[in-house]
Amino acid sequence: MKITIQEAPKHVNEEVTIGGWLANKRSSGKIAFLQLRDGTGFMQGVVVKSDVSEEVFSDAKNLTQETSLYVTGKIVEDTRSDFGYEMQVSHLEVIHEATDYPITPKNHGTEFLMDHRHLWLRSKKQHAVMKIRNEIIRATYEFFNTNGFVKVDPPILTGSSAEGTTELFHTKYFDEEAYLSQSGQLYMEAAAMALGKVFSFGPTFRAEKSKTRRHLIEFWMIEPEMAFMDHEDSLQVQENYVSFIVQSVLANCNLELKILERDTSKLEKITAPFPRISYDDAVEFLKEKGFDDIEWGEDFGAPHETAIAESYDKPVFITNYPKDIKAFYMKPDPERSDVVLCADLIAPEGYGEIIGGSQRIDDLELMERRYEEHGLTGPAYAWYLELRKYGSVPHSGFGLGLERTVAWLSGVEHVRETIPFPRLLNRLYP
To answer: How many CB atoms lie within 10 A of CB 372?
Structure first.
């Protein structure tokens, strides 16, 4: 019977065959320990000289790293391993012998590993990060489908920008100017007017020349948009969603979190509701903490966000930013025209902003004034204005950056490890 490593717990004391690769091995004169992987997980295979033919034992001792093979044997419990099971090998068949595999068990520099990202993905920790990423995606679909949202796919090639043209990748679209999308939000607003509650999940692109551990050139965003929902309604959706994906990772990625040595006690505290602090109060707090450089009206940088987050053991909303540093479509606070109904959600442990959201302007006259202030003319923006002309309603939405969220939940230092093939300022390979 051919099974996967993931299925091994269902076949204790049965003889099975697993197709996989040799991740590592060690051997003595009488026993060879094979560290096997097959894409679904990692498991040890034990080859005892006295229990197998001379040919099998010789093959086991001479296996090279990343050689592909079929391994046959009996699944038994192994309380010493995180996985809890191992195979007592009786037979093996080499499919393809790998020679001179470049990523050895010794330590390698980050640039070397990034140059070999197509192979580095095979390692135990990178495998664990990708499994956590997959669980967040799975839980995202479950959360929004369960709560009445419809999945909508906005275009990647667009004729306009969502928040400004300075960080866009420009391209030609036949005889027209076009950009790679930096957000699907404007299109999701149109979808919400048709379908009520919608969400998108897809790649976005920012031509931002940043080298920080929080930035990628190409990254994935989850962007819900909701008709008939105000800013407060949206904040509740955000905290419930984040709580749901955190608890899903805890429930379904226990082994992966162990492999990454993640302190899960910190994640267990992540349940709604989340604390909130206004931008006004955040500025005062930062000044008290010695950040004399920050003034009202300036955006927060990574050190500022980290300092604020350190005062909480849950993600914290920073609300009501100044109008002049936020996007043109954000609705002003009815009680204060100099700030808008928006919030950034800052993750704990120094991982920074994972969500940005706001209530959108629904008044046609106000949006027309915004267009004039920002010089938004031509057909690329005309359709967006029409959303306020034909049956406008209060509506809100937000965007969650997948890679920053994966980094936070898995506990890795840099977002380049949270996407299969990262695109960085100086990296377009592999």
So the answer is: 10
157 class by beta-carbon count within 10 Å (0-12 exposed, 13-18 middle, 19+ buried): exposed
In this structure, are residues 287 and 246 in contact, taking their beta carbons and an 8 Å threshold?
Answer: no
123: its two tokens: 């390692």
The encoded tokens of residue 248 equal: 């899903």
DSSP-assigned letter for residue 331: P
Distance CA 46, CA 63 (A): 13
Tokens of 420: 């299969």
Rounded Cα distance between 414 and 403, Å, is 9
Q: What is the 3-state secondary structure (H, E, C) of 197-251?
A: EEEEEEEEECCCCCCCCCCCCEEEEEEEEEECCCHHHHHHHHHHHHHHHHHHHHH
3-state percent breakdown (helix, strand, coil) of the chain, nearest 5: 35, 30, 35
386 near 190, Cβ under 8 Å?
A: no
Domains of the chain, CATH where assigned: 2-96 (2.40.50.140), 117-417 (3.30.930.10)
C-beta contacts of 335-340 below 8 A and 24+ residues apart: 339/279
What digits encode the pLDDT tens for the residues 321-349? 999 999 999 999 999 999 999 999 999 99
Looking at the whole model, is its pTM more than 0.90? yes
Question: Which strands sit side by side in the sheet containing 157-158, from one edge to the other?
Answer: 157-158, 176-180, 170-173
Residues 6 or more apart in contact with residue 70 via CB below 8 angstroms: 17, 18, 19, 92, 93, 95
Largest CA distance in the chain: 85
How far apart are alpha carbons 231 and 320 in whole angstroms?
10
Choose among 340, 353, 262, 263: nearest CA to 303: 353
> Splitting the chain (430 residues) into consecutive groups of 10 residues, what average pLDDT does each group show?
98 98 94 98 98 97 97 97 96 98 93 97 98 98 98 94 75 93 96 98 93 94 98 98 98 98 98 98 97 95 96 97 96 97 97 98 97 88 95 98 98 97 95
Enter the tokens of residue 45. Answer: 């295979």
Q: What are phi and psi of 102, to 5 degrees?
A: -70, -30
C-beta separation of 26 from 33 below 8 A: yes
Cβ pair 357, 397 in contact under 8 A: yes
The answer to whether the peptide bond before residue 273 is cis (omega within 30 degrees of 0) is yes
Task: Name residue 37's beta-bridge partners.
Answer: 21, 42
For 72, list phi and psi in degrees, rounded to 5: -115, 140
